[in-house]
């Protein structure tokens, strides 16, 4: 016979349990860490630490100071961390005030999948850095006594078992296409895609051999819609003012990337993959810019490419005109600096993709460890 005190308590427990289960669905994955690989779309400080500082006004909207991000505020990877209730990722290459307890960010501005692009930190290097990081963490942990493990690893470093329980995220490939467009013909860029994706598959396999099991992979965005692309190649624009040939190549890249993911899903039996259609989410935002409260998507907030090339964070006075001042309200712009998205745009895109609406299979990121092998 239950007492009057016990029954309400059991009801409360039952309600909480049902809430956690999402009404009978699979529970959240409880990822202990995120390990991210990518380019400037998800760099949280690597380029600033390794090569040159990402200067103000970058970071002004959210952080109030430069944060190593090519943005006025947060990136999609930051919104991923927030959604998973984890801290923002420290850049692996940064040595000041870094905390790797819940993961590390190997993404670096300018990076590509293949070597030989804008940055020396291509995906193969990022994977090597991860392997070195994991090896050192495991070695140090195994040599520490119990009390030191608690103090040292409790605050700054992941535990060895966190690597198999982490989420592995990718947002890379845009620079492979961008570099190709600048240095070769469109036909050559298209011909390079299979080799680019072969190297991507190799990177995934290396992570799998290191114990990685859950992968969240962004496809590449509509590169032809970047204001920078439109300024330098406006010969063939679509109905939204985007460079049609560049977007067609990006779509071809994404189709082949999805096929590769399906192959990896079949070959790596213990792995779980979610392919995320960031292209469609971003193109939807650009198509609906006015309705979503944004200005013309071909405009941008910081820097200048019209007449004089002034990177965001720099200023120049030419014939009495000051170039390089940021706009008054970045939240009205989709593009922050002509190449990278504003925090407002990143937040809009993140709100669409993290719930699973643009994912294959259609699963929210919190439950991506339960993504079906055969969606």
UniProtKB/TrEMBL annotation:
GO molecular function: hydrolase activity, acting on ester bonds
Residues spanning the membrane: none
Keyword Hydrolase attached: yes
UniProt-listed CDD domains: SGNH_plant_lipase_like
InterPro entries: GDSL (IPR001087), SGNH_hydro_sf (IPR036514), SGNH_plant_lipase-like (IPR035669)
Domain of life: Eukaryota
Name of a matching Pfam family: Lipase_GDSL
Signal peptide positions (record): 1-22
Key words of the record: Glycoprotein, Hydrolase, Signal
Cited PANTHER family: GDSL-LIKE LIPASE_ACYLHYDROLASE, ZINC FINGER FYVE DOMAIN CONTAINING PROTEIN
Sequence similarity: Belongs to the 'GDSL' lipolytic enzyme family.
Name used for this protein in its record: GDSL esterase/lipase At3g27950 isoform X2
Organism name: Rhodamnia argentea
Taxonomic path: Eukaryota, Viridiplantae, Streptophyta, Embryophyta, Tracheophyta
